[in-house]
Amino acid sequence: MGVNSLKQKTLTGLGWSFTDNLLSQGVAFGVGIVLARLLSPEEFGVIGIVSIFIAVFTSIVDSGFSGALIRRNNAKEIDYNTVFIFNLVLSCILFFVLYFLAPGISLFFGNDQLIALTRAMGIILVVNAFGIIQRTILIKKINFKTLAKISVLSSVISGSIGMGMAWSGYGVWSLVIQQISRQSLNSLFLWVFNRWRPRLQFSIQSFRELFSYGSKMLASGLLDILKTQVFTAVIGKCYTAEVLGQYTRAKQFGTIFSDNLTGITQRVSYPVLSSIQDEPERLKSAYRKIMGTTMFVSLVCMLGVAAVARPMILILIGEKWLPSVDCLQIICFSGICYPLNAINLNILQVKGRSDIFLKLQIIHVFFYILPILLGFFVEIKGMLWSTVVIVYILTCFNCHYSGREIHYTMREQIKDVLPSLGIALFVSGIAYTISFAPFSPYVVLPAQLLTGATVFYLLCEYTGNKNYFEIKHILLRIQKPN
After folding, report:
1. Containing structural domain, residue 87
2. How many domains does the chain have?
């Protein structure tokens, strides 16, 4: 693939991936705000418990095969068919496992509702399995335009269903049906918009080759999910459903930028960087740009959300969610490093170092034992602050190992990020100072946003921040017709 062709595909992919996340997540965020006003923190807390098991089992269904197929430049039809059959069979098995585990889950968390809710949500496992290969093929082709259409359609329709049910008094079941309908519609539209159809083919050799790489990614993915979902489990077990509901709302607000930004970058960069994995200089240059621009946006957005947290929560979802403000601000400080960590781990996949990837996930789990244990003995804020410290320590590990693979040291990475950090701290500091003004949140929030945006623009233009101008260049290129 030529330089111009690769750059154009990357820009197009970034544009449509950004559009996908902006619209679909924007719809989901808007729906979440409406549901938060109609439902109670306890109801969101109960769904948070069920989501733990759905996330873990979903990762097992994929088993790392998606990443293995994307990385394989010469993937054949039999490879796709083999993985499709495996995913579907495994999803059915895990659905029945979850079905019979439901009473035990209900007993452990002391909530009788969890039996029916867990069994109903288990349907998502089978529904998702039908769309894994379809999505993988579109990602491999960097066809994010189609993915954007599918995601937006699914979000709008399922969101309307969820809001309608919540308004009609269905309570927690409105959240369940919303999630099931979203995943069902997503898989359905993947089949409608993508022409690939499975055949009854299964190759043991193909399975072994893909699983040799995918198994390590599966183990890594499970460790990552367990690491994050254990927090939810500890909060659900040691505190009330209301506290868990406040935490899940804070997490949604706190990760909307970091998670979506990371997802956009990973989806686009993985297939693109995989195509130049044997060109060291070109790979390092492309990776350095991706890391710099991603962290620039992440730092500004995460510190910005922390600065406007209180008036934003009061305006969007109301006073009953005010306890989530402290959690939200702490989550923002830990979330700053998520894109950097994810992108560093992404380069290990591109280089085929799933062994180091797994090693780092084991290290992560070891360090996360401390905040998890603290959750049993201290209040939730103490647990979250300890997580911030752990995240920064683990970032150093990730930067070291990934940097070694492409000769991009941790010192170089930090040096590239520091100018963006300085701008983000200055802008968010000014915005946070305004939050102490003795006015209505409807006055304070617009004042924070307007002042912050003005200072940000002037500062970036004056300092000539290269990441700022790189993003401007990308946006201008995306807007140009092909």
Report:
1. 1-238
2. 2
Same domain for 220 and 88: yes
Q: What is the pLDDT of residues 310-323, one digit of tens each?
A: 999 999 888 888 98
Residue that has been written with the tokens 């005010």 in this structure:
322
Query: Which H or E element spans position 59?
Result: helix 41-62
DSSP letters, 417-453, are: HHHHHHHHHHHHHHHHHHTTSSS-HHHHHHHHHHHHH
How far apart CA 290 and CA 305 sit, in angstroms, is: 22
Residue type, 382: G
Which whole-number Å values give the CA distances from 70 to 63, 144, 183, 289, 368, in the listed order?
14, 14, 22, 22, 30
Residue 266 sits in the same domain as residue 162: no
Work out the number of other CB atoms within 10 angstroms of the CB of residue 149.
Answer: 17
Asked whether residue 358 falls in the same domain as residue 454, the answer is: yes
Best CA proximity match to 293, nearest among 456, 417, 411, 407: 417
pLDDT tens, residue by residue, 87-108: 899 899 999 999 999 999 999 8
State the CB neighbour count (10 A cutoff) for residue 364.
22
One-letter amino acid for residue 360 of the chain: L
Output the CA–CA distances (angstroms, integers) from residue 384 to 163, 236, 436, 437, 461, in the order listed.
31, 15, 24, 27, 36
Length of the chain: 482
Of 238, 265, 296, which residue sits at a domain end? 238
Q: Which residues of the chain have pLDDT under 50?
A: 1-3, 481-482
143 lies in the same domain as 257: no
One domain for residues 330 and 222:
no
Residue 72's SS3 state is coil
pLDDT recorded at residue 275: 64
Q: How far apart are CA 436 and CA 232, in angstroms?
A: 32
Task: Tell me: do 218 and 285 sit in the same domain.
Answer: no
Record the tokens describing residue 68, joined without a space. Answer: 């293995």
The closest alpha carbon to 200, from 91, 80, 69, 70, belongs to 80
Residue 371 CB contacts under 8 Å (≥ 6 apart), including other chains? 231, 383, 384, 386, 387, 390
Q: Looking at the structure, do residues 224 and 281 belong to the same domain, yes or no?
A: no
Residues 187 and 277 reside in one and the same domain: no
Domain stops at, among 206, 238, 270:
238
